Amino acid sequence: MQELVDILLDGIEEKKEMSNTIKKVLETCFQEEGIEGLNFYITVTLTTPEKIRELNRLYRNIDRETDVLSFPMFEKEEIEQIVQEKEKQKLPEVLGDIVISIPQVEKQAIEYGHSFERELAYMVVHGFYHLMGYDHIEEEDKKKMRPKEEAILTKLHITREK
Hints:
Elements: E1 5-10, H1 16-32, E2 40-47, H2 49-60, E3 68-72, H3 76-85, E4 93-101, H4 102-112, H5 116-131, H6 139-155
Parallel strand pairs: 1-2, 2-4
Antiparallel strand pairs: 3-4
C-alpha cells in the first residue's frame, strides 16, 4: 500500500503516538473523499510556534503564531475532476503540505478540555480539508467543511470527551 503521508519534524521530538494518529486520520480522510487509490500523498510537518509564525508571516503576511497551516497544490475543481475521472497518477503526487504547531496543539487540548490526540486529529483533518479546497471564512463554506471534519473524527471515535 502506498504511503499517504510523509511526516517531518522541525524542532519537535518524534513520538510514535503522533505519527499513528496522523496516519489513521489521513487514511480515513482519503477513503471518505475517494482519493485513496489516486497516488496522492501529503507532507505533514510538526513544528514549533516560532517556526509556524515565520511561515505565517512569510506566506500569509500575518505576523503571529497559529495552530495549523495548509498549502494546497490543487484547486478544488482540479481535485474533483481527478476524483471523478479516477485518474491514477503514474508517480506519487503531493496533494499539499500541512504544518502543525505541536505546542499549540497541547495548549488548545488543555484549553478545550479534551485529549492531545483529539486536538491533533482535528488539526490534521482540518488541514486536509483545506488541501481539498474547503474553507471556513464564510458561513456557507463553514457549513460544508465542519460536518466533513466531524464525520471523520466520529468515524474514528475521536471525540471531544477523549
